[in-house]
Write a structure and sequence with these properties.
The chain has 210 residues and is an alpha/beta fold. 43% of the residues lie in helices and 18% in strands. It has a single domain, classed as P-loop containing nucleotide triphosphate hydrolases (Rossmann fold, 3-Layer(aba) Sandwich), CATH 3.40.50.300. The longest helix has 20 residues.
């Protein structure tokens, strides 16, 4: 795994030096439209990368999907770090009542939207049955496909680790994987953040057809 990762990083840097890849220190998505995905494990730098990608734009709406919990000191510290890092002029949406209602309201604007992160959306609807979840999923996918400005979504990579021991943990992992798969299929740009590095998935991948 480490040898493969090193090989990809070498290729990544080689293509970048020849101008075949975007430089995250300079470039945001070329068009202010479509979907850009930044995925990665915990502490990989994915949120920092996503914030950098949208920092050049005015009128940014930032959706923080995890609800604050004053009893969870670790979560509160992570939220504090994110808050301190974000520009003050971004519109912040957090502790909202319902995610689908929120994005329906955002249809009226043309802000660049940064969603951090996808897992929080899955958690919000985790108590829904399969059919109810599928309805929410389809509404979200339709919103992303038809939104008139840029959307950047941060996605947690959870399927690479230990299989969850609980039923609810398996539902979360499966739904997050399913939604990530669908979003990847309609994305314009997709990067994997790992160990503080970023890999262009669109460049170094082939589509799996079922």
């Amino acid at each position: 795994m480490h040898i493969l990762y090193a090989y990809i990083i070498i290729l990544n840097n080689a293509y970048k030096s020849k101008g075949f890849m975007p430089d995250l220190n300079q470039d945001a998505p070329k068009k202010k439209k479509g979907l850009t995905i930044i995925s990665g494990p915990t502490k990989s730098g994915k949120s920092v990368i996503a914030e950098k990608l949208v920092s050049k734009y005015k009128n940014v709406s930032y959706i923080a999907t995890l609800k604050e919990d004053i009893t969870d000191l670790n979560l509160e510290e992570r939220i504090k770090i994110h808050k301190e890092r974000r520009p003050k002029d971004w519109r912040l949406y957090h502790n909202y009542k319902d995610f689908i209602d929120l994005i329906n309201d955002l249809k009226k604007r043309d802000d660049v939207i940064l969603i951090d992160s996808l897992g929080g959306i899955v958690v919000e609807y985790l108590d829904l049955n399969h059919d109810q979840w599928q309805k929410k999923l389809k509404i979200f996918i339709n919103f992303v496909q038809n939104y008139k400005s840029l959307i950047v979504i941060v996605i947690e990579e959870t399927g690479w680790g230990v299989v969850p021991s609980s039923r609810i943990g398996n539902i979360f992992r499966d739904r997050l994987g399913e939604l990530s798969f669908l979003l990847e299929d309609i994305s314009n740009n997709s990067w994997l953040a790992i160990h503080g590095k970023v890999i262009n998935i669109k460049l170094f991948s082939n589509q799996i057809y079922e």
